[in-house]
Design a protein that fits this description.
The protein is built from 14 helices and 13 strands. With 386 residues, the chain is an alpha/beta fold. The chain binds aspartic acid (2 copies).
């Protein structure tokens, strides 16, 4: 078994361009197990791997054993490969094991007690934001500054050579010559993964399109633990734009370690994508979908995770206009909630949380944003192996 694992880690992970997957198979047939797990396509594999007959034999057995759970297999492979190859990048929250998540949360707790430590002295972190950000960028930059490192980069791609038509690849290759770590946000799903394949410099994904926002998830987990005293067995209600909201996608994946129950509240246009519901089914997670944002649901909830309708992701702005104000949480809706219940929001908010909620004991979104600093300090140290 050990032998299978080692060879497995070493050779099978394939990540190309904007598509991620794992190649499994034997000499004649190979499969690409894609991220969404359900699609198992026949694919070709690298000639260098063909020599590894024994390896492919082992993998074929492993694959057959895992065939009914391709998504689980996918995540296992990604994690093992990251560990084996000592890849310090953080692209998806699923790159982290439960143990790593818990150890990062402990580290974040240490930074909360003492955020000023000069452990990044001499390090340069590039902060590349191809898409607007306030909290993520500022909290990352503050994190580096408080740890004694230096930041280079841009917050507006128009001020970089991207405006002259430079490709993402060229920008990443160039910045890799200068920095020890790259923190990047991009409007395209998969951009961070692509960048991590181009350079040995670790990449931290600070949001890629509607796909993932793993660093937000770390601060969300930190906040959930801080408010609930546990991450286990909680009822988490996600409200709003579950289709394009990358924060809910990452949070859902991270929570699978902690036996949650989910309630998804969204209108039909913004429902949780099938891929994430399939993910819940694969991991045996209970979920319920509804279009109605009622007090009945709020009263059963431990964490109420509100989200903004992601205007920038709509191709049809008429559709955005139709759905933009669909759910608004008001203070009067919180009168029967559980005493431990807290309202979280990755921010910025638009109309989805009325101002009167800010004065209730349930409002916790500003403290949540503050936790971004500590969670990101912990993640930067992990990426630089400090
Ligand atoms: N996109 C939001 C903002 O920058 C939150 C974030 O930083 O991730 O204001
Ligand atoms: N700040 C979060 C993000 O960057 C949520 C949002 O922008 O609505 O995804």
């Amino acid at each position: 078994m050990v032998n299978i694992k080692l060879m497995f880690i070493k050779f099978v992970v394939f990540r190309g361009g904007y598509c991620s997957g794992i190649i499994l198979g034997n000499k004649r047939r190979a499969f690409l197990v894609t991220r969404c797990g359900k699609k198992v396509q026949i694919y070709y594999y690298f000639p260098t791997c063909i020599a590894q007959n024994r390896f492919f034999f082992s993998i074929s057995i492993f694959f057959v054993l895992c065939y009914c759970r391709p998504m689980r297999l996918y995540y296992l492979c990604m994690r093992l490969s990251n560990q084996y190859m000592d890849n310090r990048s953080l692209i998806s929250i699923s790159d982290l094991s439960k143990e790593e998540i818990l150890s990062l949360l402990r580290r974040a707790g240490e930074f909360e007690k003492n955020p000023n430590q000069r452990i990044l002295a001499g390090k340069v972190v590039a902060s590349l934001f191809f898409e607007p950000s306030t909290r993520t960028r500022l909290s990352f930059e503050t994190a580096v500054n408080r740890l004694g490192g230096r930041v280079i980069g841009f917050s507006d791609p128009k001020s970089s050579s991207q405006a002259k038509g430079e490709s993402l690849k060229d920008t990443i290759m160039m910045v890799s010559n200068y920095a020890d770590l790259i923190v990047m946000r991009h409007y395209l799903e998969g951009a961070a993964r692509y960048a991590s394949e181009l350079t040995p410099v670790p990449i931290i994904n600070a949001g890629d399109g509607s796909n993932q926002h793993p660093t937000q998830t770390m601060l969300d987990l930190y906040t959930i633990y801080q408010t609930q005293g546990t991450l286990d067995g909680l009822t988490i209600t996600m409200v709003g734009d579950l289709k394009y909201g990358r924060t809910v996608h990452s949070l859902l994946e991270a929570m699978h370690h902690f036996s949650p129950r989910f309630k998804f509240v969204a209108c039909n246009e913004l429902r949780m994508p099938e891929q994430y519901k399939e993910y819940c089914r694969q991991w045996g997670i209970d979920y319920e979908e509804t279009t109605e944002f009622s007090e009945g649901i709020i009263n059963q909830t431990d964490i109420l995770y509100m989200t903004r309708v992601q205007r920038e992701r709509f191709s049809d702005l008429m559709e955005y206009e139709r759905v933009k104000n669909i759910y608004t949480l008001t203070a009067s809706m919180l009168t029967g909630c559980k005493p431990n219940m807290r309202v979280l929001h990755p921010l910025p908010r638009v109309t989805e949380i009325a101002q009167d909620v800010d004065d209730t004991p349930q409002a916790y979104y500003f403290q949540q944003a503050k936790n971004g600093l500590y969670a990101r300090q912990a993640l930067i140290c992990r990426a630089l192996d400090l």
